[in-house]
Write a structure and sequence with these properties.
Ribosomal Protein L22, Chain A, 3-stranded antiparallel β-sheet, two-stranded antiparallel sheet
């Protein structure tokens, strides 16, 4: 017995509200250009779980407190995260200078800090009876955004 093929549905009719040949002018956006940068370190050779232990300590802190905590932390992840925080502060200074705006570095705080999982490096190690066992060497993406506090006070 041959299986029956389902009947094709008729194509939906397109209804034109305007004349077919007329093109509508596109409205240009005149809003002020806002540039945001996301300082990021990609594929840091540290597992995301270990990096998140450190990033959770500095999220929401003022930049000065965060850098002090990272400088004296024993974790290897702290060195990687410290580089990204310093880069974020430098980017904020550069952006303020380019826009001719005032920026007090002491009022900056860590607004957004997240660790995402990067690509895994796949390796193999010998196992019993001539087999091989996979090893996944995990990597992380560090992403930090700093902003200026509205009240101007640290946390």
């Amino acid at each position: 017995m041959a299986a029956k093929k389902p009947a094709k549905k008729p194509a939906a009719k397109k209804t034109a509200t305007k004349s077919a040949g007329a093109k509508q002018p596109v409205a240009k956006k005149t809003a002020a250009k806002t540039t945001t940068n996301k300082p990021m370190q990609r594929t840091a050779r540290q597992s995301p779980y270990k990096m998140r232990l450190v990033i959770d300590q500095i999220r929401g802190q003022s930049v000065n407190n965060a850098l002090a905590l990272l400088a004296f932390s024993k974790k290897h992840a702290a060195k990687q995260i410290e580089k990204v925080v310093k880069s974020a502060v430098a980017n904020a200074e550069h952006l303020a200078r380019a826009e001719n705006a005032t920026l007090d570095v002491d009022d900056l705080f860590i607004k957004y800090a997240v660790i995402n999982e990067g690509p895994k490096l796949k390796r193999w190690t010998p196992a019993a009876m001539g087999r091989a066992t996979p090893i996944l060497k995990r990597t992380s993406h560090v992403e930090i955004i700093v902003a200026e506090r509205a009240d101007g006070g640290g946390r």
